[in-house]
């Protein structure tokens, strides 16, 4: 898992300035902020808007359009379950139900202990070995309920290193 | 010294290839064995991955799928037969890689180097014909390059199948102080992974294709718009761009030619709609990924309002072979108006899932039986979805259709990006139809009403049909709704969602009418 820092305006400013010579730099800036802090704090939207000389509404509009950008901190591990057709053909609907039941949360939610955030994803490009899930940036193949449970166990005991 | 190839792409890593590589390094160190380990891309024979290859005088010998526990025995065997480097009795022995029928019976042009070379070695790339296309392009006038592409018959491999040469011609003829080459690498269709394979396993071919496109239309800047889910591809592409800059293929002077071309990778953020070219351009400009009305087409007013070539990864990665070997060479493959080869991706419930690049014209039946080997679960195939989430579900009666753009259009289907997802007889086609509407509701950019509202209403109507509520009335409503979406949507998102829905509804009606009619209730 990745350790995220607490945000502060100076860091936001430093991150944003690194990208300002790029054309259409808003998405790269948002990516960099999320990489650093794990989410894009709503309180920094005004600051970003000022840097780009656009309204806060415009920045919010972009943020809220893209499912990847989040405005709240994620759990220690973000688990994405592929809901798309290739994975469906190999039983991902069962896996989806099993994951929600096991973690006690629905999609877009974080477990009460802050361990897991569950998100849907529509294709990981791993369709030859469905069903697929992603933990952080690591992709796993042929994930059935048993494999999912083993993975969760590993994550909770921190044996598995997620890069 | 023995050379061993251990693949490194997203899927092989998910199957344990990185751990295998570590284990082999440890084994070699332990036994003081001199090994040269090359991390190649994947050949795309995914049911055999992780597939390890050993270099011999006769060619590369493959073993797979190799698990951690196989390493000791396998490596000991390799050492024992050091003279020939072949150990044929091993249960994982697959023979010469090139002779594996799945690979032997393909015609790999776009994928010629994929899985063979070290993706980040420019020396490997050059040894295997890399930059030959660029070499030829540098001796030609822009218009001549465009003619080569037009004559080859290459059509957009992203899904729309628009002739690539015509697009380039428009950009070439549009005057502007700045033009762009944008690579659409937002491969979001379920069942597709060909773009990912090119970017992870042979990134220089894409870079070469983009440089040639730049020379052809007079563009000096290129962007690869890559989906967020493809982090390994991002890493490989960024390293490859860096290597290409160091070798002066990218930068102020492309190979000392006086032509400038610079390239940058930009990450998407999980929005499927950004695979639509105008939404992609808005996203690149730092906006919400909203679909634009056409005209103007991007070739006239694209990125930042400038003339822009927007091509898929596969189209651009096919450009070098056309320039290197001539348009006629490429055109000799295929049939009718579908010329050349198409990289098909066998996915989902199929025994031999993987990448199959063949000339247009093979039948779907041959693809899923001969190459695919039937379902992974061993049950009969019920439906095959071709062309991603906006593609039709095809029943048995349509499996003899040749894979060719026109033949598929004729049966109300699409080839799209070449994704082929197989379903066995446990699939509920009504559930699939409802998912198609749900997916459209989730991913719609929201600009046009038929797509934004129609998809939500579609989910509701399908729920009612499946529950058996006023079956006849709601069936008619579904058909009307699909017509509105198809004819009234701004882009393919809403316009083609009816394809999977209606193909499921028309060909698998029994799945929709399982519950008893509950008339009178709404």
UniProtKB/TrEMBL annotation, chain B:
Which cofactor does this sequence's record say it needs? [4Fe-4S] cluster; FMN
Is Chaperone given among the entry's keywords? no
Asked whether the UniProt record includes Transcription among its keywords, one would answer no
Q: Which Pfam families match?
A: Complex1_51K (PF01512), NADH_4Fe-4S (PF10589)
Query: Which PROSITE patterns has this protein been placed in?
Result: COMPLEX1_51K_1 (PS00644), COMPLEX1_51K_2 (PS00645)
Among the GO molecular function terms of this UniProt record, one is: 4 iron, 4 sulfur cluster binding
Against InterPro entries, the record matches this protein to: NADH-UbQ_OxRdtase_51kDa_CS, Nuo51_FMN-bd, Nuo51_FMN-bd_sf, Nuop51_4Fe4S-bd, Nuop51_4Fe4S-bd_sf
Going by the entry's taxonomy, the superkingdom of the source organism is recorded as: Bacteria
Residue ranges of every copy of the NADH-ubiquinone oxidoreductase 51kDa subunit iron-sulphur binding domain listed in the record = 430-475
Q: Which UniProt keywords apply?
A: 4Fe-4S, Iron, Iron-sulfur, Metal-binding
Q: Which SUPFAM superfamilies match?
A: Nqo1 FMN-binding domain-like, Nqo1 middle domain-like, Nqo1C-terminal domain-like
Protein family (similarity comment): Belongs to the complex I 51 kDa subunit family.
What name goes with this protein?
A: NADH-quinone oxidoreductase subunit F
Question: What species is this protein from?
Answer: marine gamma proteobacterium HTCC2143
Question: Lineage from the top down?
Answer: Bacteria, Pseudomonadati, Pseudomonadota, Gammaproteobacteria, Cellvibrionales
């Amino acid at each position: 898992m990745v350790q995220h820092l607490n945000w502060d305006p100076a860091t936001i400013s430093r991150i944003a300035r690194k990208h300002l010579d790029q054309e259409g730099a808003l998405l790269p800036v948002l990516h960099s902020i999320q990489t650093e802090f794990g989410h894009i704090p709503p309180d920094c939207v005004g600051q970003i808007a000022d840097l780009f000389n656009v309204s806060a509404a415009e920045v919010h509009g972009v943020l809220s359009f893209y499912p990847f950008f989040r405005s709240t901190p994620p759990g220690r591990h973000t688990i994405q379950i592929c809901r798309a057709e290739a994975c469906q053909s190999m039983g991902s609907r069962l896996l989806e139900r099993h994951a929600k039941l096991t973690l006690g949360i629905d999609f877009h939610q974080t477990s009460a202990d802050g361990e897991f955030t569950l998100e849907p994803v529509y294709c990981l490009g791993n369709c030859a070995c469905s069903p697929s899930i992603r933990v952080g940036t690591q992709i796993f193949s042929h994930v059935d309920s048993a494999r999912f449970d083993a993975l969760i166990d590993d994550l909770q005991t921190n044996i598995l290193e997620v890069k | 010294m023995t050379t061993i190839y251990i693949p490194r792409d997203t899927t092989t890593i998910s199957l344990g290839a990185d751990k295998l590589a570590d284990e082999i390094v440890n084994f070699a160190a332990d036994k003081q064995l001199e090994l040269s380990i090359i991390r190649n891309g994947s050949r795309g024979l995914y049911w055999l991955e992780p597939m390890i290859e050993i270099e011999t005088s006769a060619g590369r010998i493959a073993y797979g799928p190799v698990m951690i526990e196989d390493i000791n025995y396998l490596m000991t065997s390799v050492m024992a037969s050091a003279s020939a480097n072949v150990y044929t009795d091993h249960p994982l022995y697959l023979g010469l890689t090139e002779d594996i029928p799945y690979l032997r019976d393909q015609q790999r042009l776009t994928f010629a180097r994929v899985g063979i070379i070290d993706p980040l070695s420019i020396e490997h790339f050059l040894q295997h014909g890399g930059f030959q296309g660029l070499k030829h392009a540098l001796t030609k006038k822009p218009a001549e390059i465009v003619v080569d592409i037009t004559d080859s018959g290459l059509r957009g491999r992203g899904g729309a199948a628009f002739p690539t040469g015509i697009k380039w011609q428009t950009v070439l003829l549009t005057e502007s102080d700045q033009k762009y080459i944008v690579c659409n690498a937002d491969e979001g269709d379920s069942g597709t992974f060909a773009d990912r394979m090119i970017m992870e396993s042979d990134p220089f071919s894409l870079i070469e294709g983009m440089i040639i496109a730049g020379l052809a239309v007079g563009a000096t800047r290129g962007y690869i718009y890559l989906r967020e889910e493809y982090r390994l591809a991002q890493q490989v592409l960024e390293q490859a761009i860096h290597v290409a800059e160091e070798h002066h293929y990218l930068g102020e002077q492309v190979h000392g030619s006086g032509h400038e071309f610079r390239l940058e990778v930009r990450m998407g953020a999980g929005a499927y709609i950004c695979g639509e070219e105008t939404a992609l351009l808005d996203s690149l400009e730092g906006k919400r990924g909203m679909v634009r009305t056409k005209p103007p087409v991007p070739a006239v007013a694209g990125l930042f309002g400038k003339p822009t070539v927007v091509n898929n990864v596969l189209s651009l990665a096919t450009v070098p072979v056309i320039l290197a070997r001539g348009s006629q060479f490429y055109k000799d493959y295929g049939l009718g108006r579908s010329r050349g080869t198409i990289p098909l991706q066998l996915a989902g419930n199929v025994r031999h899932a993987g990448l199959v690049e063949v000339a247009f014209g093979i039948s779907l039946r041959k693809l899923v039986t001969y190459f695919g080997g039937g379902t992974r679960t061993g049950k009969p195939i019920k439906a095959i979805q071709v062309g991603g989430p906006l593609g039709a579900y095809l029943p048995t009666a349509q499996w003899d259709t040749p894979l060719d753009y026109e033949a598929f259009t004729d049966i109300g289907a699409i080839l799209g990006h070449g994704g082929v997802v197989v379903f066995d007889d446990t699939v509920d086609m009504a559930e699939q139809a409802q998912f198609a509407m749900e997916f459209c509701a989730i991913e719609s950019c929201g600009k046009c009403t038929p797509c934004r509202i129609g998809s939500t209403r579609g989910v509701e109507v399908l729920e009612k049909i499946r529950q058996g509520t006023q079956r006849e009335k709601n069936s008619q409503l579904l058909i009307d709704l699909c017509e509105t979406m198809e004819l009234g949507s701004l882009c393919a998102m809403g316009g083609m969602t009816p394809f999977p829905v209606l193909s499921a509804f028309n060909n698998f009606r029994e799945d929709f009418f399982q519950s008893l009619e509950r008339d009178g209730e709404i």
